[in-house]
Amino acid sequence: MGMKAKAHHHHYNASGGSGGGGNGSESSSSTSPSPPPSPRRHSTVPHCRRKLRAKPISIVSGFLLLRRFLRLLVVLPLLYVSGLLMCVGPFSGLLGHTPLPGSVYRSHEMFQLLWPHIQADNSTPIELSSVWRFRRKLKEQKPCPPSASGLQLDSPGLTGYLIVEVNGGLNQQRSAICNAVALAGLLNAVLVIPHFEFHNVWRDPSTFTDIYDEDHFIATLEGHVKVVKELPEILMDKYDHNISNIPTLRVEAWAPVRYYTGEVYPVLQKQGVIRIAPFANRLAMNVPPPIQHLRCLANYEALKFSSAISNLANKLVERMTEMSSRTGGKYVAVHLRFEEDMVAFSCCLYDGGEAENVAMNSIRQKGWGEKFKRKGRVTLPGLNRIDGKCPLTPLEVGMILRGMGFDNSTSIYLASGKIYWAEKHLAPLLKLFPYLHTKESLATPDELAPFEGYSSRLAALDYTVCLFSEIFVTTQGGNFPHFLMGHRRFLYGGHSKTIIPDKRKLVVLLQNMSMSWKDFKLEMEAMLTESDRKGKIIPRVKKFTRKSSVYTYPLPECSCLQKHNNTQIVPSTHS
C-alpha cells in the first residue's frame, strides 16, 4: 500500500523529526483488558442434544485455551521485568537480592582500588601512530556517475522549485541538506537554500549562511543540481511573500524513490513549487547510484563551513597539534555526552545519591514535562546500564584509554557541551590525562564570543578538531559520531580510526571489584583491537540493496571523490 502525499496550509509540526543526542521516537502499545466472563446459564437443553454439541464446545474451549496461552506470553515477560526491577531497584539491598552484573555504577570505587596500580604501571605505552594495524586495500578508483538530472522522469527541463524545512542539531541538519540535494536531482527540481527551523532543544537561530559557505555550496553543485538563494519574485508574489503559505507535503520517513516519482513529482509539475516539512530522514538509503553520488558530493565537497567557523576551527586544530608535540603532533579526540540534560534523559543512576536523583527529576520535569511519568512507563536505571544506554562518565573514558595503553603524556581533546557537575566528574580524568584540552581552553574568550549561544556553530568547531585527530572516541552514539566516522572513512582510506567502547561489556567489568589492573588492561586491549577491525569494514552494497547509512559508511559509493594521492590532509580544504 503506497504512501499518499498530504498537503497542509500554515501547519508545521516542530517535533516531526528525530533529535540528536537522546533522539528517537517513542513507541507505545496498548492492550485491551479482557471482558469479564459471562454468568453461567442453566441449560435447558436435553442431555442427548448436549452430547451432539460436544464437538463444537471442545473447539471453543481450544480457542479459549489458545487465548489464555497468548495472554501468558504477554504477562510472563512483564513478570520477568518486574523481577528484574526488584533486583536492580533501589530496594534490592533491603530485600537481600544481589544486583545484576553491570547494573550498578561502581566505577568510582573501581578507580580508587586500581589507581595505585595504574600509577605503578611501567609498561611501554602505545604509540598513537601505531594504534591502527588493520589496513584496507584500496580498489581501483572508478569515475563518478553521470549527472542525475531528470533521472527516470519524462520532463526534458527543470520541473519546479523544492523547499525543505531542516530541523535538529548540526548533523541532523547536514543529513537533511544532503538528502535535499539528492531529491532535487531525482525530481529535476531547483533547490532553494534550505531553511533551518528553530528548535526548543538546541535553541540555535543560525541560518544556512551562518553555518555553511552558501556561495561555495551553489558553485560546487552547478551542473548537478541548480541551487538558488530564494524563490523568484513571481512565485513570492503568488504566496504573498510568505513561504509558509506554500502548501506543505507531509512525507513519511525513509520514503522510497518510487514514492517521490509517483506521488510528489506530479504535485511539483502542477504547482511549480513544493515544500516538504519536516525533512529529516525523508529519503530512503536505497537510491540509484547517480542520486547516491549527489549525497556524497553534497556532504564531502559542497558543504564547507562558513569562513567564521573554518578560520577558528583550523586555528584550534593547529593549536591542538602544537600541544601534542610529545606524541608527534597526534592527539585523541573524545566525544563526551555527559551534559546534565543527557544524563537526565538517560534515567541512569551514578554516584550522586539522593541529591543527584532530585536534580535529575527536576531537569526531566523542566525539559520533557510529564513524559517520564506517563501511566505505564517504567524506568529501570539498572537495565539501562546493562543494555549500554548510560552515558559514559569522564572517569570511565579515562580508565578505558589508560587500559588500552595510552599513557598520561597523551593529549586529549574533549568535544562536549557543559559537563554535568564538571568539577567533580572531570577531576579523575585530569589525574589520568593531565594534557586535557577543550575549545574553551584552546581559544581565547574574544575568539569564542561570537559563537556563544549558538550550539550548532560550537558543534562545528568540535567536529573539525575531532575530524583531524589521530584517534576519535565515541561514547554515546547519535548523529555527531556517525557523521564523523563516515567523514573519517572518506578521508583516511576507508578506516574510521574510531574507538567504540563495548558498553555492555564495560559495565560488567567496572562493577567487578576483584578484577586486577592487568586483567582490565587485557580486556581493554581486546576492545581496541575490535574497534580497529570494525573501523575498516565496508558494507557489501549491490544495486539498490543498501541498508546502512551512506553518511556513516560512505564507501564504495563515494570513493570516486576520494583523493588518494594526497599524503597530507590540510584542515582548511575540508569543512
From TrEMBL:
InterPro entries with a match to the protein in the record: FucosylTrfase_pln (IPR024709), GDP-Fuc_O-FucTrfase (IPR019378)
CDD domains hit by this protein: O-FucT_plant (cd11299)
Gene Ontology process terms (BP): fucose metabolic process
Keyword Zinc among record annotations: no
Sections of the chain in a coiled coil: none
Highest rank taxon of the organism: Eukaryota
GO molecular function terms attached to this record: glycosyltransferase activity
Listed transmembrane segments: 69-91
Keyword Ubl conjugation belongs to the record: no
Ranges annotated as biased composition (Basic residues): 1-12, 39-48
Keywords carried by this UniProt record: Carbohydrate metabolism, Fucose metabolism, Glycosyltransferase, Membrane, Transferase, Transmembrane, Transmembrane helix
Family listed: Belongs to the glycosyltransferase GT106 family.
PANTHER family: O-FUCOSYLTRANSFERASE 10-RELATED, O-FUCOSYLTRANSFERASE FAMILY PROTEIN
Protein name: O-fucosyltransferase family protein
Taxonomic source organism: Pyrus ussuriensis x Pyrus communis
